[in-house]
Structure formats: structure tokens, C-alpha cells
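WARN  no MSA supplied for this record, continuing single-sequence
INFO  ligand: zinc ion
INFO  echoing inputs
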Amino acid sequence: MKYCKKCTMPDTRPGIVFDSNGVCSACNHYEARKNIDWNKRWTEFEELCNRYRGCNGLGNYDCAIAVSGGER
Ligand SMILES: [Zn+2]
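INFO  complex generated
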């Protein structure tokens, strides 16, 4: 049996893939997330909101915010 070098996840877990470094797909996914520039993301999100803001009049909630991920 093979284990992930980072989280010691065994390769018996369904859907798990190891890369050439012996690191599982979950760890690789996590690493990729860390490299996301969240400030840039937020700016883009604000710009998107600004585009729709105000179309229902000031002071109303006019943004639908979809949040995904388990970071609460
Ligand atoms: Zn892992």
C-alpha cells in the first residue's frame, strides 16, 4: 500500500491519485488553492458587484452572493 508523503492518505481511498512525488491529489489541490491571489479575486468580485449595484435603487440588496468551500 502507498501513502501520501504529506498527509499519509492511503491509496486505497477511492478516487485518489498520486503524482510522481508521491503526493496525493487532495494535497496538490490544497497547494493550488494556496497560490490563488485572494486579493485579486476580491477586487474582481467587487468590480462584478459594482456592475450590478444600484440597478434596484440604492440601499437594497441587489447582489446574490454564492459562497462555496468549507472555510467558515
Ligand atoms: Zn496528501
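The pocket of zinc ion is lined by residues 4, 6-7, 9, 23-24, 26-27 (CB under 6 Å).
INFO  checksum written, moving to next record
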